[in-house]
Amino acid sequence: VLFNEKNIGWAASFNRLIRESRAPLIHCFSHDDLMHRECLKDVVALHRENSRLAFSYCAVDYIDGAGHALPPAAEDHTPARIPPWLHAEISVVWGCIAGSVSTIVLVREALLRHGVFDEQLRVANDWELLTRLSGDCDAGFLNRRRVTLRNHVGQMQQQTATLRHHAHEDLPILYRLLPRVRPAFRPTALRALRWKMHVRQFHSAVALILRRRFDLSAQVLRALKPYDSLPRLALRWVVVKCLRRARADNFFYRKILRIH
């Protein structure tokens, strides 16, 4: 059993475990989540069937802090083998392709080429690593619920303190992914960035203002400024806010903007 004498952060802890491990596949996992009995067997089978994978992730179940089952996510039609262009397109529209580090399996050979978790980052360590790994290799998706993630009420509150880090770390990752999308998808990707990802970060800035954290809000806005016009972004935020209150935002994204 390995342990740290002091808290060095989860990325540094994972990097230490990666260095200590010897297996060709490394399944990351958080102490608060649950692994299903068939998980490792099915993951190994996925990688044997798809030898070019740099990493994989799996579908999940959800429970609350008391261990009660939560409604499952919508059915996912992502293929088992995800080429770099598809990984980029999914990420630009939806964010990090793996919703939790507990679903991620890393291939040692790919880590030797591209490196491990960036310990300088605060919140996007896993997404940044997956972006690096997917540059020249496929990703894998095990479309079976083999991990149960625990959602705590406090998690949303904890995220409030890290909103500025999301803006500074997520946006550069998104724009690293943009050149990888297919030319025909690029207009959709740009709409997704402007109407979803930028709006999400602007919403964080507004939330911080409402919490009277003007300094943090200013940091989020400064992170957005190189990528968008703030007055136009504010207008898009108002439009999305109104659509969400009318429960018409999904229709707007899918039917009007054609972001799928």
Describe this structure in words.
This protein has helices at residues 10-20, 39-49, 84-94, 108-114, 125-133, 153-160, 163-177, 186-210, 214-224, 230-245, 249-256, and strands at 25-27, 34-35, 53-64, 81-82, 105-107, 138-151. Strands 1, 2, 3, 4, 5 and 6 form a six-stranded mixed β-sheet that branches. The radius of gyration is 19 Å and the shape is globular. It has eleven helices and six strands. With 260 residues, it is an alpha+beta fold.
Care to give the gist of this entry?
This protein is of the alpha+beta class and about 260 residues long. The protein has eleven helices and six strands.
User: What's the number of extended β-strand segments?
Assistant: 6
Low-confidence stretches: none
Helix coverage percent of residues? 40-55%
The average pLDDT value, as a whole number, equals 94
Question: What shape does the CA trace take?
Answer: globular
Task: Give the amount of beta strand, in percent.
Answer: 5-15%
| Element pattern in H and E | HEEHEEHEHHEHHHHHH
- From the alpha carbons, calculate the radius of gyration and give it in angstroms: 19 Å
Tally of contiguous helical segments: 11
Structural class of the secondary structure composition?
Answer: alpha+beta
Could you list some keywords that capture this structure?
260 residues, alpha+beta, six-stranded mixed beta sheet, 11 helices, globular
What is the topological layout?
Blueprint: H1 10-20, E1 25-27, E2 34-35, H2 39-49, E3 53-64, E4 81-82, H3 84-94, E5 105-107, H4 108-114, H5 125-133, E6 138-151, H6 153-160, H7 163-177, H8 186-210, H9 214-224, H10 230-245, H11 249-256
Parallel strand pairs: 3-6
Antiparallel strand pairs: 1-5, 2-6, 3-5, 4-6
Helix pairs in contact: 3-8, 7-8, 7-9, 8-9, 8-10
